[in-house]
Amino acid sequence: MSLSTPSQFAPVRSAVHCRLTCVCCSRTYEFSSDLITDLSRHQTVLQGYQLLEQQLRLSGICPECQTD
Ligand SMILES: [Zn+2]
Question: How far is the CA of 27 from the centre of ligand 1 (A)?
Answer without folding.
Answer: 6
